[in-house]
């Protein structure tokens, strides 16, 4: 069965934490393709500080040499907030009965029960949760218990991604890189360099356009 990974984010800016996790999941779980989906108006957070064309251009620059990584612009082309459930539904309509996997960091997964129509998400896709090696479920906080229960109910072996189109949750350890876009924006705002946290091509764009100053 054809299998596609879907990696959504604000990518404000895209950094090696995103890219390395996406690559390790791509190689380890044998996706035919990883689609990076920049969000337009994120429902769960403040407006991004850089416009969507610039965020898109940075993602393009970051993945230009990586085979099977593609940009999916559907959230930027859509009016209104970027709900992942709508994105997955529209991919399902486009791609038919393939395997779709929503890739997310553990932090994002623990907040999933607050997402718009989150239960529908698992009817449309699998979820692959990238976590730090050695992390345990009992470290989750009270507010995150629903996500932990969901994981216990739906947890599956990685082979499910090749066998079924949707419905499983797969936990995968990836190399932990403690990089966040928030910290990168702060660094640049304070006049420091963000080099070696992001691809050089992305850093050159930030410098040229004076982003995040
Ligand atoms: P911000 O600091 O602005 O909140 P971010 O760096 O967390 O941004 P997002 O675009 O919000 O990046 O995240 C998109 C996805 O990437 C989420 O699923 C998140 O869990 C994951 N992610 C972010 N940083 C890392 C990282 N360092 N390692 C692995 N996954 C990450």
Automatic annotation (TrEMBL):
Q: Which reaction does it catalyse?
A: nicotinate beta-D-ribonucleotide + ATP + H(+) = deamido-NAD(+) + diphosphate
State any GO BP term from the record: NAD+ biosynthetic process
Q: Which GO terms describe its molecular function?
A: ATP binding; nicotinate-nucleotide adenylyltransferase activity
Which SUPFAM superfamilies does the record associate with it?
Answer: Nucleotidylyl transferase (SSF52374)
The EC number(s) this enzyme carries: 2.7.7.18
Pathway named in the protein's UniProt entry: Cofactor biosynthesis; NAD(+) biosynthesis; deamido-NAD(+) from nicotinate D-ribonucleotide: step 1/1
- Protein name from the UniProt record: Probable nicotinate-nucleotide adenylyltransferase
Q: Which InterPro entries match?
A: Cyt_trans-like (IPR004821), NadD/NMNAT (IPR005248), Rossmann-like_a/b/a_fold (IPR014729)
Tell me the ranges covered by the Cytidyltransferase-like domain, including all copies: 6-186
Say which domain of life the source belongs to.
Answer: Bacteria
Does the record bear ATP-binding in its keywords?
yes
Report the function annotation for this chain: Catalyzes the reversible adenylation of nicotinate mononucleotide (NaMN) to nicotinic acid adenine dinucleotide (NaAD).
Recite the UniProt keywords alphabetically.
Answer: ATP-binding, NAD, Nucleotide-binding, Nucleotidyltransferase, Pyridine nucleotide biosynthesis, Transferase
| Pfam families, per the entry | CTP_transf_like
- For the protein in the UniProt heading, the enzyme class is transferase
Question: What family is it from?
Answer: Belongs to the NadD family.
Q: What is the originating organism of this protein?
A: Thiohalomonas denitrificans
């Amino acid at each position: 069965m054809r299998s596609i990974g879907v990696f959504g984010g604000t990518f404000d800016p895209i950094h090696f934490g995103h890219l390395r996790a996406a690559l390790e999941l791509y190689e380890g779980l044998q996706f035919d393709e990883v689609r990076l989906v920049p969000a337009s108006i994120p429902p769960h957070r403040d407006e991004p500080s850089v416009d969507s064309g610039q965020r898109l251009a940075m993602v393009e620059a970051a993945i230009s040499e990586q085979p099977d990584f593609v940009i999916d612009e559907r959230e930027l082309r859509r009016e209104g907030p970027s709900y992942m459930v709508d994105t997955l539904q529209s991919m399902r309509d486009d791609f038919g009965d393939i395997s779709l996997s929503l890739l997310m960091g553990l932090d994002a997964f623990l907040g999933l029960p607050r997402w718009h129509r989150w239960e529908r998400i698992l009817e449309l896709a699998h979820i692959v949760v990238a976590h730090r090696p050695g992390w345990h479920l009992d470290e989750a906080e009270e507010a995150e218990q629903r996500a932990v229960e969901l994981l216990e109910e739906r947890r599956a072996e990685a082979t499910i991604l090749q066998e079924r189109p949707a419905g499983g949750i797969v936990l995968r350890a990836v190399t932990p890189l403690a990089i966040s876009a928030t910290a990168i924006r702060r660094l640049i705002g304070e006049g420091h360099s963000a080099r070696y946290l992001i691809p050089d091509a992305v850093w050159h764009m930030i410098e040229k356009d004076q982003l995040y100053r």
